[in-house]
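#struct-help
A.M.: can someone run this one for me? Single chain, 135 residues.
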Amino acid sequence: MNIRRRLGLEWAGVALLTSLLIVALVHWDVLRGFDNLLYDELTALDRPLADPDIVIVAIDETSLARYGKWPWPRDRHTALLNQLADSKPAAIGYDILLSDQSDPESDSALANAIRRNRHIYLPLHFAFPGSDGAD
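D.P.: on it. Structure tokens below:
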């Protein structure tokens, strides 16, 4: 066998094996952790400093220990939003889904607290129907 043909077959074999390896790695999602780590490190290189005017109020383990397990009643959310309104923030991003049952009086009080905070942004939750058209 001449050297040119042998070299061509070897490289075709290497290309085929490499392609199969890449397909397997992508199919079984083996590299996701590495990809996320690499992405985090690269985005940290040119990350701007946090704006000191932005305050994040988070629900953490301390909050849960102090106020009880989740979900909290609407009254707790109403009190927080009223307290925030007194500070006159430029905007509020309230990333809480209020999908649990509540009474109309609590819902009305929460709606009023939301109205007091003129620039409040709430999340949306879409309920997609199942395959038969029902929820």
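A.M.: thanks! The mean pLDDT is 89.
D.P.: also worth noting: The radius of gyration is 27 Å.
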